[in-house]
Amino acid sequence: MSNLSYRISVRVRDNRSSRNARNLAAFLAQRDEIRNALEDGWTVYQIWETLHAEQKITTSYNAFCSQVNRLIIKREETALPKTKRAYQSPSPPRHAANTAGFTFSSTPLKDEEIL
């Protein structure tokens, strides 16, 4: 977290800001840790429960889920496709088959007719 982000979160927390502003500041202060925990495979509930027990997050579980979806998951989803497209080579269509091999024809050749 940058120095400015830390100062903003402290100011919002200590000020008589709205409850939503305090909850958002607390979440943003923990965002990198939350993202890392998600990448490590922990569930959103386990992360919320731990942060709530440590009193780092005071918001409800439902509000925490909304923040995770809005500020971590959806932001990464919108950023990810742009970088994916830049580095992925186009894949061949599924229906394109290798034509160097056996080819079936339903009409018999004249010289192969059996009488």
Automatic annotation (TrEMBL):
User: What is the protein name stated in its UniProt record?
Assistant: TraK protein
InterPro entries assigned to the protein according to its UniProt record, in alphabetical order: DUF5338 (IPR035225)
* Annotated region described as Disordered, given as residue ranges: 82-115
Organism per entry: Nitrosospira multiformis
Alphabetized Pfam families for the sequence: DUF5338
